Structures are given as structure tokens and as C-alpha cells.
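User: Teach me something about this protein's shape.
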Amino acid sequence: MRAAVLHEIGQEKLEVLDDVEAVGFGPGKVRVRVRATGLCHSDLSAMSGVLPQPAPFVPGHEGAGEILEVGDGVGGLKPGDRVVLCWLPACGACPACKRGQTQLCLAGFMNAGTPNFRRPGGDVFGFAGTGTFAEEVVVDAGCAVPIPQDVPFDIAALIGCGVTTGLGAALNTADVQAGSSVAVIGCGGVGISAVQGARLKGAAEIVAVDPVASRRESALRFGATKAVSPDELAEAKQQVTGGEGFDYVFEVVGRSATARTAYENTRRGGTLVVVGAGAMDDFLQLNMFELFFDEKRILPSMYGGGDVLRSYERAIALWRAGRIDLGGLITHRVQLAEINEALDQMRTGTALRTCIEI
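Assistant: First, the predicted structure itself:
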């Protein structure tokens, strides 16, 4: 089958090969035919080495498709079922799951260390235990979440990561209060989803911050009340909050520099929500006095900060009701053979989300 492979960490381009095999099928597993997958910035971060990932590997973790085959002991799934792929499934038995913090379950991360593809030259890993830039994947049954028939594969793929992460940051982690002021730094697919979440919660002012003009224009269509470049943030802070700072600031870039900017633009007693996935050697510096004196809450948000399955259901319900726009997030579409075009679109910021149709 075909898959897009990164041979070594640090390479900027993927090679689409037709000699890749999805392996590991057996009890408790399912084989999925991938129909659509989104390109998330985390895929680029894994390719560059910002996020740890063994190589060679098949990127992609935001996908949807249909069940081809189910292994022994798998219940609730059958061939032909439409599913969204969950890269962080909950085991239901660990301390985090028992506390109701299923997004902190580590069981899914264990999958990332097991090769789930093979080529004639040896094993190939799947990013985050999935690897959706491939025609087929074999995953634990818990990674394949059934979706209704009326949800298109491209919409379902977005729900598999970016939408759940951004919406959840606003709805779950921050629990944005009606009438509040919000700033979102970084307005790709995840940031725009955070904008939509803040709008749903009734934020009075939502300032979108991004260096790319097209993304700023998009943010206004999705519910931002103002869109500015990073250089204009100080002026927007003065205009919207009288210089006090925003009630909520979402950092959706994954860098200490933007996290520091987000902290400085959060009002005293306000909330900074860290959504972006950054590098292990990139440290955010805060002094002990400001931590004490400003009493700002710093809330990391992992995969939307809530139960993933419920978050999927909520996103589908909101999309069906017309309360959130998911189709509009897809600004570009490419075939698997054109995957490197999608990478360029992400790197230049011209795309909110590129859908790879497989």
C-alpha cells in the first residue's frame, strides 16, 4: 500500500512509497482504511524533532476512515463502520482515567514506541501510534471511534485532533465566562477552533493574533471581533481592556516566547491557557514575585482538557446544529501524492487545515 514516510528526523519532505505494509493486526486490533486526514502542526514538529518520535515514521494523527477488519475480542465495531481515529485513547483503568482525566491517560503513548508499519528495509513507526498519511492503519480498537453516517470523513478527521483541542481549550480548560475578553495567539486550525469555542461561551471580545494576514481575515469570519498582527497586540490590549490585560489568553503556537507574550497580556487574576505543543528544551521563564503578585492562572490544555469521546460527540452535535463551522476550516485539499504541497501550505501559513484525501 501507499504511505508517506519520513526517513530521518530533520528532513523537510516526505517520500510517498507503495511498498509499505500495515502490521500488528490481531486480537484487540482493527484495520482501518483511511479516507481523509488533516495536516496538524504537530506532524511538522515531529518531523523537525521538536516532538519526540522514532524514525523512520509515517506522520499523520488526525484521520478518519472505515473499518476493514476487526480482530478477536473486539466488540462494538464491524467492517464498514465509519470511524475517527483517536491518537490518545483512554484505557479506563489507570489512575488518570479513574479520576475522570482521560486526556492524561498514558496508555496511548505506549503505542508510539511500537512499529505499526513495515517496508522491505525494516520497521516503520506511525506518529503518535497512528500514522494516518497511509492508505491503511492497524490500531487498538479503542483508537477507532464510531461516527454517524452523516459525518463526512474530512469533517471527522478534523474532530480527531485540531477541533477537539481548540474547542476543548475554551470550553473545558478555560471555561470561558460570558462577557469576558479573550486573545488567541496563533490562528491556524487549532487557534480558530479556540476562537469558535470562546464565541460559543459568550466572550464579548475575541482578539485573534497571527502574523499571516489571511489567517487574521479567517479568524474574523469564525467569530473574532478583532484580528491583529503580533506587533499590534499591545495596541489591541489598550483598546479592548484599557491596558489591564485580557481575561483569557490562549497560546496556540508552542513556543516559550509566545507563552511569555501571552502571560504579559493576561490581566492580573486572569487565565493563560497553553495549547501549543512545544519542545522539551524550550523553557518558559517566570519570576517568583510575579507568580505570587499577579495571581495569574496558567493552565496547560492537553487534547482539549476533557474526556475525548464526549468531546467528539459535542463537536458533532455543535456542527450539526450549525453552531460551529468545521468545513470552513479546510482551506486546501490535496491527494496523498501531493503531501509535500500540504507541508508547504502549513509552513507558510497559507492553510488553516489541508485535507489529504486518500
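Now, about its shape. The CA atoms of residues 3 and 134 lie 4 Å apart. The two ends are 11 Å apart (CA to CA). If you'd like, I can walk through any region in more detail.
User: That's plenty for now, thanks!
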